[in-house]
Amino acid sequence: MSGIKITQLRKVYGESVALHDIDLEVKDGEVMALLGPSGCGKTTTLQLLAGFLKPDGGEIRVGDRVVSTSHSVVPPERRNMSLIFQSYAVWPHKTVRENVAFGLEVRRVPKDELKRRVDRALSTVRLDRLADRYPGELSGGQQQRVALARAMVVEPDILLLDEPLSNLDANLREEMRFEVRRLHDETGITMVYVTHDQAEAMVTADRIAVMNLGRVEQVATPYEVYERPTTEFVAAFIGRTNTLLGKIVSKGVVELDGMGVKVQAQDETGCAAGEEVAVCIRPHQVLFERPNGSAVNEIKGRVSRAAYLGETRDYQVELAAGQPRVRVTAPPTLDYQVDREATLFLPIQHCRVVIRS
Fold first, then answer.
1. How many CB atoms lie within 10 A of CB 57?
2. Which of 13, 102, 112, 178 is the most buried (most CB within 10 A)?
3. How far apart are CA 301 and CA 319, in angstroms?
4. Listed residue (260, 257, 266, 259) closest to 324, CA to CA
């Protein structure tokens, strides 16, 4: 079993707390993405998993084995984990085959088995026809596939990936997201994938741990973190969102500047009446025209910005003082001019209460 259980994990650098006693569980065979902005603690978590750092509190278990505590750390070479960094770190003087075979040679794997495993790894990453080329003759995406094959050929229990696609251009990055997911589906290996790119996390991961300032704010499937965020930070970081600030009046009702706004009855925040919260709704869910058969909130405003984007129009609407502008993504046929008074319709099923950040 190669599941991971992190309990109350803490890491401190001087007076700065990098990780605030986080709890996280990665199931055997799962891809868990650690997603968040720079400085949120995701790379520190990965380095603790790899055994490069010693925690200041808590523990890490792999299966039923404790691999890290504040008192002892199993060294990286005894964890049976492979790590892929941002840079490909392939040896330029070795061919693709030689790069992939290196880890097996160090382990003194018999030649027949070595060839079989290298051939299988190259076939898995679709580089078998390029086995005799040197890295300088490969594209960036192909070099990253070499790194993936080299990491997987040693048959690790867990594969750790630290922003592995960040050095690729946009088109290659998009292609490689699906490649990483395909490799997981073929091998079933447990993966922990660090990234700041939400699309990358949503394509590759079974679940996403959204991190902020050394804490895990939410752990859920890609669908759940987008459709059912629990905090203002998660709602804003995963896709675009509008955030309106107010207080809970009663279950399903939030007061915004003296106006009662109805929200989803399902509230996972645990906030009580009188507490300050945020109401989030995505730009494409805000409407300029009342929908048929849907219960909505109506808010008055004034168009402060308008942009034609071909497939859509992008608007900003100024509300009452103290509230942020509301962004609206509308069909291209709906042409509103700047300074025009507008009524916005917010479908209740899309208005979600989240914890203020």
1. 15
2. 102
3. 5
4. 257
Regions of the chain with pLDDT less than 50? none
Whole-prediction pTM: 0.89
Instruction: Could you please state the CATH topology (level 3) that the domain comprising 4-227 is classified under.
Output: Rossmann fold (3.40.50)
Structure tokens at 31: 């891809």
Cβ atoms of residues 199 and 33 within 8 Å: no
Residue closest to 225 by CA, chosen among 265, 161, 280: 280
Query: Structural domain boundaries of the chain?
Result: 4-227, 242-355
Task: Tell which residue, 135, 138, 43, has the closest CA to residue 94.
Answer: 135
Residue 65 burial (CB count, 10 A) = 10
For domain 242-355, the question of CATH label 3.20.20.70 is answered with no
At position 137, the amino acid (one-letter code) is: E
pLDDT in tens, 286-325: 999 998 888 889 999 999 999 999 999 999 999 876 678 8
